[in-house]
Amino acid sequence: MPSEKPARKRAAYGLPPSVQSILATAADVQQMVSHGINPDGSLKPEAIRALLKLKGVNVKALAETHGYSDPYFHQVINREYKDARVEDVIAEALGLLADRIWGRQSEPAA
């Protein structure tokens, strides 16, 4: 059975300081998500941020990649602005349906 790497080597490999820190983060994210659902089924900003953290998505890099500013992405996450394109980018980064995250009403099929 391989032994755990020392803390100084863990950082060099891009690993968290300890396995316990991973478990603590996962528990925090789970708690945030469980309390982060609106009555309409959309996600609250706290839950979106928790999922982004869990997935390791860097919002600043994501925003810059798509030609937006970091603060604007955060304003969309906080629902201060509504921008379907930014919402779609965030949903894609999370691997979830945008309509589900943002509580959009799907258009009925013609």
List the helices and strands and how they pair.
Elements: H1 7-12, H2 19-34, H3 45-55, H4 59-65, H5 70-77, H6 84-94, H7 98-102
Helix pairs in contact: 2-3, 4-5
Global Rg: 17 Å
Q: How many individual helices?
A: 7
Report how far apart the termini are. 60 Å
Strand content: under 5%
- Residue share in helix: 55-70%
Order of helices and strands: HHHHHHH
- The class by helix and strand makeup works out as mainly alpha
Uncertain stretches of 5 or more adjacent residues: none
Please give the number of β-strands. Answer: 0
The oligomeric status of these chains comes to: single chain
Mean pLDDT: 82
Strand count, sense and barrel status of the largest sheet are: none
Shape: globular
Q: Can you put this structure into words, describing what you see?
A:
The protein is mainly α and 110 residues long. Helix content is 58%, strand content 0%. The chain is built from seven helices and no strands. The chain has helices at 7-12, 19-34, 45-55, 59-65, 70-77, 84-94, 98-102. Helix 2 (19-34) packs antiparallel against helix 3 (45-55) and helix 4 packs across helix 5. It starts with 6 loop residues before the first helix and ends in an 8-residue tail after the last helix. The mean pLDDT is 82.
